[in-house]
Amino acid sequence: VRLVEFGGGLVQPGGSLRLSCAASGFNFSRVVMSWYRQAPGKERVVVAVITPGGERTDYTDSVKGRFSISRDNANNMMYLQMNNLKPDDTAVYYCKTIDRAGYWGQGTQVTVSS
């Protein structure tokens, strides 16, 4: 099993980024997937979740209306579109399977700063 996140970087407040997660080694289209983030000195917390078919999504309150999770099962990819970014969004972002195994990627850094 492998999860690889990419697309992070430095962005100014109000800017946008699109994170990607490339999955391999498991039946991606049958697994609930999620994005987590961990800010400096804080616990890792869930940001968004998406059902296997993509028909249902859920978000933590602080990102509702700004972030959008999606997936492409044909290509084993998951995305997190992040708009109107704020300094409080600065964190390492991880993709994670929501199943018995709970696999994690290595994370990608997002820094929101002027």
- Contiguous runs where pLDDT drops below 50 for at least 5 residues: none
Count every beta strand, where a strand is a DSSP E run of 2 or more residues.
10
Strand percent estimate: over 45%
What Rg, in angstroms, do the CA atoms define?
13 Å
Give the helix/strand layout.
Blueprint: E1 2-6, E2 9-11, E3 17-24, E4 32-38, E5 44-50, E6 57-59, E7 67-72, E8 77-82, E9 91-98, E10 108-112
Parallel strand pairs: 2-10
Antiparallel strand pairs: 1-3, 3-8, 4-5, 4-9, 5-6, 7-8, 9-10
Polypeptide structure, described:
This protein is mainly beta and 114 residues long. It has strands spanning 2-6, 9-11, 17-24, 32-38, 44-50, 57-59, 67-72, 77-82, 91-98, 108-112. The chain contains no helices and ten strands. It is globular and about 40 Å long. The chain starts with a strand and ends with a strand. The relative contact order is 0.32.
Entry summary:
The protein has 114 residues and is mainly beta. It is 0% helix and 51% strand.
What key attributes describe this structure?
114 residues, mainly beta, six-stranded mixed β-sheet, four-stranded antiparallel β-sheet, 51% strand
